[in-house]
Write a sequence for this structure.
């Protein structure tokens, strides 16, 4: 939710920290701040709002702050949980002496108790945050070594954290620690970086160390000393990130969201490349690491995810049940975690997460693993916690997704899940001939997306016509039902229009009461099974004066005759239809939000990855 970056080395420290913060801004943008370690003092600058505000303040008030190297600094971009967005609540936080500074991601659950204990010792708090206790606690525990003080402080803490600490007592040093909130160390030549997300540091080094939960590290420009909370050295491998930092730039597009929508043909092509075998009419998903026998023994699949990833899971339910005859439960990850779910020995649990860091999905992974399930994750971010803790799974290879509204991750998730259903299907009842048809479906997806993208001006026109509406309904059937939910989610999160997705059959069980002139209904009426019923639903909407925007298969005059506006979708199978249809809805939401002048990449109250409950 929040972003952390830190640097120790000889570069311009302010520029490096600001650059890292800008790359992390999609994680939180309520406020930002940085702390720089000078010989005998820590200098802190904070502002509310975006990183640009922080940059302007530094330039206006300080000129450029340059510190003779090697210097250390930490910085943070915040998504408020405890305490409103304000300068006081922005990180970094100092202890009362101003000699220790921390930045923190996560939630300290026992902070009130710790705070009153520390206040009793004369420590003065200036913010309403839970995080500030860490600065005071570390100062209290300091007995000559920053890492030991941090470890001692963290032993008193309940909750989750990814933290970075600097102190005047330890020049040229940053201490980091992780429990439930990621920290990655970038290994440079004569410099070391730290961040909550590799995207902040990928421009500086491709060599990274992912800390595990319970790890602490003391870093200088030349050294990295990793220990556990008992101060015992632990060794962690250096991983190489095959990530082109330019992939995280806007590259001339107005917004990351539009760039990521337009990247989808290539993203899906990357997700499916080399993963299908026409010879045996199946998919090759080596990351699952399951023998054909183990696959055949799976008698139930449980999918746990949140938001857009949850919608991909709902689509997959149709795929697995129809192609592989495996019963599938799709669970909101938080519900899975707290409901004491029934997991049998042959249950396969599939967590789905773009970021691989979503707190509820991660907790579901742990719960499933504890109950003895086989856990195979679908993640986009390589090396993310969910990917690593699941131990097996499939990466999406969608490339970095920066826009808060998830787009290309969804279409890659759906494509990979279709391949997974093909694999399990061929492992049981699906014929070779039907397997080949699914391979054709999967291979057709990048081209189908390109065709929709070529029609974006037409979608923009429709978007402009309806951008003033206050409420929208989206309705779908079959595997287009979750697409209706996803279309509504996209619209509400970036345009702030109230939008609801429903199964079309559910309309008359209540929501139809809200239909009237001025409340558009987006009806997913592609020419796939369920279309005839959808025609009836469109008539019901018309009878209540609601204008209908329909998605329809190219050349379908029947739908064109009854809808007010049509978004044309190329002809394709019902399985493949999910992807071009959702791309059309992404574009519709994007252009409506643009017309309304919304902050598309950084919508209010949202952050890219939800690493707190
Ligand atoms: O990183 P994840 O896929 O686990 O994230 C799950 C949701 O937080 C995410 O999909 C969210 O709903 C997006 N803002 C949707 O656009």
């Amino acid at each position: 939710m929040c972003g952390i970056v830190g640097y120790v080395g000889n570069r311009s420290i302010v520029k490096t920290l600001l650059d890292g913060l800008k790359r992390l801004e999609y994680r939180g943008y309520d406020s930002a701040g940085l702390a720089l370690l000078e010989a005998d003092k820590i200098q802190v600058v904070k502002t509310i709002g975006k990183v640009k505000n922080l940059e302007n303040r530094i330039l206006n008030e300080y000129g450029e702050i340059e510190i003779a190297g090697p210097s250390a600094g930490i910085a943070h971009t915040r998504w408020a949980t405890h305490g409103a967005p304000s300068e006081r609540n922005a990180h970094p936080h100092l202890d009362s002496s101003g000699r220790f500074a921390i930045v923190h991601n996560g939630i300290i659950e026992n902070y009130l108790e710790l705070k009153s204990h520390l206040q009793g010792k004369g420590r003065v708090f200036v913010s309403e945050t839970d995080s500030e206790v860490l600065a005071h606690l570390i100062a209290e525990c300091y007995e000559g070594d920053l890492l030991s003080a941090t470890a001692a402080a963290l032993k008193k803490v309940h909750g989750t954290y990814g933290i970075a600490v600097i102190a005047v007592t330890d020049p040229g040093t940053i201490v980091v620690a992780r429990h439930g909130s990621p920290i990655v160390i970038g290994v440079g030549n004569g410099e070391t970086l730290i961040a909550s997300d590799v995207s902040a540091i990928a421009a500086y080094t491709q060599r990274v160390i992912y800390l595990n939960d319970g790890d602490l590290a003391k870093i200088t420009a030349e050294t990295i000393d990793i220990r556990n909370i008992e101060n015992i050295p632990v060794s962690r491998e250096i991983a190489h990130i095959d990530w082109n930092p330019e992939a995280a730039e806007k590259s001339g597009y107005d917004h990351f969201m539009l760039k990521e929508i337009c990247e989808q043909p290539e993203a899906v092509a990357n997700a499916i490349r080399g993963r299908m075998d026409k010879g045996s009419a199946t998919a090759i998903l080596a990351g699952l690491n399951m023998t054909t026998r183990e696959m055949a023994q799976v008698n139930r699949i449980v999918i746990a995810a949140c938001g857009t990833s949850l919608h991909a899971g709902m689509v997959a339910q149709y795929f697995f049940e129809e192609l592989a005859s495996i019963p599938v439960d799709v669970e909101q990850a938080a519900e899975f975690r707290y409901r004491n779910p029934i997991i049998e020995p042959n249950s396969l649990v599939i967590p789905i997460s773009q970021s691989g860091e979503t707190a509820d999905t991660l907790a579901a992974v742990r719960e499933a693993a504890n109950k003895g399930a086989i856990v195979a994750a679908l993640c986009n971010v390589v090396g993310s916690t969910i990917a690593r803790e699941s131990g097996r799974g499939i990466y999406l290879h969608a490339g970095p997704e920066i826009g808060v509204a998830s787009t290309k991750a969804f279409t890659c998730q759906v494509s990979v899940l279709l391949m997974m259903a093909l694999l399990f299907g061929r492992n049981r009842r699906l014929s070779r001939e039907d397997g080949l048809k699914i391979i054709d479906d999967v291979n057709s997806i990048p081209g189908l997306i390109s065709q929709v993208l070529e029609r974006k001006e037409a979608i923009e026109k429709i978007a402009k016509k309806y951008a003033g509406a206050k409420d929208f309904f989206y309705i779908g059937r079959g595997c287009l039902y979750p697409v209706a939910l996803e279309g509504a989610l996209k619209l509400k999160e970036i345009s702030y229009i109230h939008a609801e997705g429903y199964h079309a059959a559910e309309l008359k069980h209540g929501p139809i009461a809200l239909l009237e002139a001025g409340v558009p209904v987006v009806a997913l009426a592609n020419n796939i099974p369920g279309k005839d019923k959808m025609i009836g639903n469109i008539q019901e909407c018309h009878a209540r004066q609601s204008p209908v925007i329909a998605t329809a298969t190219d050349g379908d005059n029947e739908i064109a005759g009854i809808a007010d506006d049509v978004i044309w979708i190329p002809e394709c199978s019902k399985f493949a239809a999910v992807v071009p249809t959702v791309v059309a809805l992404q574009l519709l939401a994007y252009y409506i939000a643009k017309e309304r002048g919304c902050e598309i990449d950084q919508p209010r109250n949202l952050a890219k990855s939800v690493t707190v409950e």
